[in-house]
Specification:
alpha/beta, Spore Coat Polysaccharide Biosynthesis Protein SpsA, Chain A, 2 domains, eleven-stranded mixed sheet, 11 helices, 16% strand
């Protein structure tokens, strides 16, 4: 299991790591936590304009490494290696001769995903983001997913069901999104073969990647993305890692099978917002998810919604005009620093 995280995940990390170890610890050979130590300059992934909170959180995080490694078997922390030599190794494996950028056009994580996956050094890599939650708690899902990838040569990825199962199928943002997936079947139960993959959670067949794909293409972001990236001081070479991997599936006719598996199965849940009230409620929320105490309104939806936790306060803070204001502040901060440096 390979978990991507960064210092600003600190408020929830211990609770979500313990949850992941209960869900997957007995199903995997080892667990690598990949910590991105390079803060983005702008966008929704940054900490604050001077990166003070980011670096302070990193020092606190580093103090946790030995504590958590002593608590769990076969757990290790690895900070993302941005050295020129390691970047060449990662670039050669995933891109061939092209150099991999540190960040995506929007300042989001990019290189850290691929460096972590490669460092896992396994034929099958179970990758996930640090904040993901899981219900069903099947202890056989990983073995079933590997068997499925071995059986179906039209798949590059397998993933848990996106959201708790609903008799009417997928809901939330997937409701009616017929372009994104085809309904399928795994061991007699409904499954969904997606033409997309989320970097939040997947099991990847590394041998099939090299045999069927070889290397990834870095499709140039569209002009509006490149302009925004330039204005905010981000690299403009790559779309998000998720988009790059999804376009790869489509180009090569491969898929990502989302399925629950045997028994109570396994499904994923994604928290759309992070803030103190949510982090305070997280231990109780994790307990509910693990016990299967899920309201009907949450079923079929992969994002935690208000039926399970009330995010209305945070949604108001993420209103469009406030997001635009934050981007303008990012722009002013970045170019003020550039002008001072010159």
């Amino acid at each position: 299991m390979q978990i991507n995280t960064y210092p600003l995940d600190l408020p929830h990390f211990e609770a979500t790591l313990a949850h992941k170890m209960r869900a997957f610890g007995s199903q995997v050979d080892r667990t690598i936590v990949t910590v991105d130590v390079r803060p983005p300059q702008s966008g929704r992934y940054k900490g604050d304009p001077k990166a003070n909170r980011y670096m302070q959180s990193l020092e606190t995080f580093r103090a946790l490494y030995p504590v958590l490694e002593s608590q769990y078997d076969n757990l290790s922390f690895h900070e993302v290696d941005y050295s020129a030599a390691e970047k060449r190794v990662v670039s050669d494996y995933f891109l061939g001769s092209e150099e991999m950028p540190d960040k995506a056009w929007d300042g989001g994580p990019f290189y850290c995903y691929f460096q972590g996956i490669l460092e896992a050094d396994s034929d099958y890599v179970l990758h996930m983001d640090a904040d993901m939650l899981y219900g069903g708690m099947s202890q056989t899902w990983v073995d079933e997913a590997i068997a499925l990838l071995q059986e179906r040569d039209d798949l590059l990825f397998a993933s848990p069901l996106p959201g708790p199962p609903h008799p009417g199928g997928l809901k939330g943002k997937h409701d009616g999104a017929d372009h994104a997936f085809d309904e399928d079947e795994v061991d007699g139960r409904v499954a969904y073969r997606f033409h997309f993959v989320s970097t939040r959670i997947f099991l990847m067949d590394m041998k099939r990647f090299k045999e069927r794909v070889g290397t990834l293409d870095l499709d140039t972001p569209r002009l509006s993305y490149r302009l925004r990236g330039l204005l905010l001081g981000n690299p403009i070479k790559a779309l998000s890692a998720e988009q790059v991997l999804s376009l790869t599936l489509q180009k090569h006719g491969l898929g990502n099978m989302c399925f629950a598996g045997a028994g109570d199965g396994l499904y994923s849940l994604h928290p759309p917002f992070h803030y103190p009230a949510f982090h305070a409620a997280l231990p109780g929320l994790i307990d509910r998810v693990e016990r299967g105490d899920i309201p009907d309104g949450q079923r079929g939806d992969y994002d935690i919604n208000d039926s399970l936790f009330d995010f209305s306060e945070m949604r108001q803070n993420h209103a469009r005009h406030k997001r635009v204001t934050r981007r303008l502040m990012d722009f002013v901060t970045y170019w003020s620093a550039r002008l001072k440096a010159s």
